[in-house]
Amino acid sequence: MYGQKPNEQTKTLPLHDLIKNGSPFLGNVSAPITIIDFSDFQCYLCNRFVRNTEPLINQTYIQTGKVALVFGHLPNRGLDSMDAALAAQCTNDQGKFWQFHNLLYSNQKPIDSGWVSKENLKNFASQISGLDIKQFNTCFDNEKYKSFVQKDIDLALSFGFRETPSFIVENSNGSNPEMLSGALPFDSFKAVVEKKISAG
Amino acid sequence: MPSMAEKKETSMPSSSEGQGSLILSFKIVFSNLVYIIFAALIAVAFSIISIIFDQLLFFYPIIIFYLPDDAIVGFILANIIAILLGIVVSMNIYVFRHSKIKIRSTSLLSGSSLGVLSSICVSCSSLGFFLASTLAAAGVTASAFVSNYQTPLRLLSIALLIWAYYSISNKLTKSCMKTYLNSSK
């Protein structure tokens, strides 16, 4: 599946609701377009997207207030992926999600090689300045966001996403969603975003 | 008692003879334009399939080829596999069609067929997600293995295809030798 309109039964996802529910996001809450990125921290194609495409989206559309980027968890690459997602969501409690996100991707190693073991995730968290590690450990050890991450997985599956990264590009009120799959280059996103901007 | 010619046929080739047979068999097959076209078609088809699975070619929302830094090594290896695959499959077909000696099915299986299968399996590495969703934990482990060892698996594929090329070259030159010996009796 490389891109299609979701079926009519698929729920729309207004940016306001996603933020209210606790999904990490980058950008302005009043941005007219939302990109929801379903990713796994162990996925090398997600890393390709983070290194090559996301900076250009950030520079061109997020910094200019045209797009808000929301992170959705789809931890299906390996057995340790769920722990990485739970840890990342715990850092979001303290507004440190994107630092943790970047730290994990910049230190990515082979899938299930132990690089995102529980112990290593705590070590990564301890490297983030300003993060209350006690609060993080409590959140992580209690698997506070297990049901939250599971809801993200269910949501991704309801859109038919099986691979990471997968994306929904929609108007911020949740209308006109368009689904994209794969570590697409910037020009692919540009085509969809410009079309939505010009459509108003 | 075996004749001198038969003795020559069964003796081990020297390294220069081996190299000669590799070049000779290549020249025999690809002097025919049909086999060049066939090899090119296989190589191009396999190369396109590889770049789609490796997420270097997208058809939606725009058609775009994209080669980021982390994909360069994989792209080069996939294209080497594609070219070798085209050569080996074409040579196999040539031998099937022209050889007067029977090729044992086991030698084919251990030669080019294995190379073809291993190459296709490498391309499947990007489909790990489907394995994961259908085979649960075992699928996750299998897909993680293929994903983690993508480059070594591709190198293994290249080694198998080179071996397959060597194997089919020997078959081809031995076949020519036998035909030559039979005709000269």
Provide a descriptive summary of the structure in words.
The complex is a heterodimer of chains A (200) and B (185). Chain A is α+β, with helices and mostly antiparallel strands and 200 residues long. Chain A has one domain: Glutaredoxin. Chain A has helices at residues 15-21, 44-62, 81-92, 97-106, 118-126, 133-141, 146-158, 186-199; strands at residues 25-26, 33-39, 67-73, 166-171, 178-181. In chain A, β4 (166-171) and β5 form a beta hairpin. Chain B is elongated and about 60 Å long. Chain B has helices spanning 4-10, 15-30, 33-53, 72-98, 105-123, 128-148, 150-184; strands spanning 57-58, 64-65. Chain B has one domain (20-184). With 185 residues, chain B is mainly α. Classes of the chains: A alpha+beta (200), B mainly alpha (185). At the A-B interface, α2 and α8 of A face α6 of B.
Give the largest interface.
A-B, 31 and 23 residues
Distance between the termini of chain B: 16 Å
Termini separation of chain A (Å)? Answer: 27 Å
**SSE pattern of chain A:** HEEHEHHHHHEEH
Total number of helical segments of chain A? 8
**Radius of gyration from the alpha-carbon trace of chain B, in angstroms:** 20 Å
Number of domains of chain A: 1
